[in-house]
Request: fold
Amino acid sequence: MSMDKDRFSPPLLPADRFSRRVVRALLLALLVAGTVPFAQVACADDDDDWRRLHHEVEAGRIKPLSEILDSLARDWVGDVIDVDIEKDDGEIIYEIELLGPQGQVVEFEVNARTGEVLEIEGRNIRGMERR
Reply:
């Protein structure tokens, strides 16, 4: 885990891409919580991905986002501003960005199967640790 990395450049996202990311994060939260009817809002291309992800959570093969966020909140101070899902070497990874108390943005990469924090990147990371 690379907690002391100070290499973070805030993404300069066009409004449409930012909106898509926010919608994806909200849909993920709704799907993981089991409120499937809202999945109809998702883009047609993403429907199969969301179904597979929901199935993985229901089957117990990956942890629900709510559990991962609760775990992070026990050790870190900050507000969730973005959630992405990536697949890396066959493992599903939650990429979660938190906005810290001093305005810093820190990204946590968490293994969705184990809940292990794999990597932390950002500035003033120590300023977000719960004491």
User: Anything to note?
Assistant: The mean pLDDT is 78. The longest strand covers residues 79-88.
